[in-house]
Write a structure and sequence with these properties.
mainly alpha, 9 helices, 0% strand
């Protein structure tokens, strides 16, 4: 058992190294030698944890996704304890996914580096599709609980908007504050079951 725990801990340590390198240089800067040096392990240790570079990247992407999902889950749990309205829960989840806050800038760079690589790497694309499917399900449930009409369609639009805002903030087209305003405006404009706007239902 201790050996298994150590193996998983090392894999996560390597994933952190991959993410730091991707943040600094993009995925083209992620080499086996540099990952080993950044993780402070031998190249052999990296190869024992991951059979290929692609397998290492898939694990690192999952590592990033778990961090985002973990924060969302923690915030929703806090909202549930405090009795927050479904709309507030949705705002918090969308803001977390969009990665527009300054403290999430490094994570946004890493996420977009993986998205770009996924266009030519089927295994990464498959993992991203799974992540988006789970997020779409979450948005659909929150929208439905808030009384939004056609929650599944609204969830697709909201997820695409939140994802796109990541890029707009990262390249400087929008400030984090402006991106949050766009997100808030969109949420207020989502129609409810009776035709009223989403914001007016809460």
């Amino acid at each position: 058992m201790p050996r298994q725990v150590d193996h998983e801990s090392r894999r996560r340590r390597i994933a952190d190294a991959v993410c730091r390198l991707a943040d600094e240089h993009g995925l083209e800067g992620v080499t086996l030698r540099d990952v080993a040096a950044r993780a402070e392990v031998s190249m052999g240790a990296v190869q024992r944890c991951f059979r290929t570079k692609e397998e290492m990247l898939v694990f690192a992407l999952a590592h990033v996704g778990e961090a985002v999902s973990g924060r969302i889950g923690k915030r929703l749990a806090q909202d549930g304890t405090s009795g927050a309205a479904p709309r507030a829960e949705l705002e918090h989840a969308a803001a977390e996914i969009s990665l527009v806050s300054p403290e999430r800038r490094a994570e946004a760079r890493v996420w977009l580096a993986f998205v770009a690589q996924a266009a030519v790497t089927p295994s990464l694309a498959g993992l991203l599709r799974d992540n988006y499917r789970e997020l779409h399900g979450l948005f659909s449930r929150l929208l439905d609980a808030a009384g939004a009409g056609e929650p599944r369609r609204a969830a697709h639009a909201l997820l695409a908007l939140a994802d796109g805002l990541t890029t707009h903030v990262l390249i400087g087209h929008l400030t984090p504050e402006a991106a949050r305003e766009v997100l808030d405006d969109h949420l207020r404009g989502i129609p409810g079951h009776q035709g009223a706007t989403f914001g007016a239902c809460n």
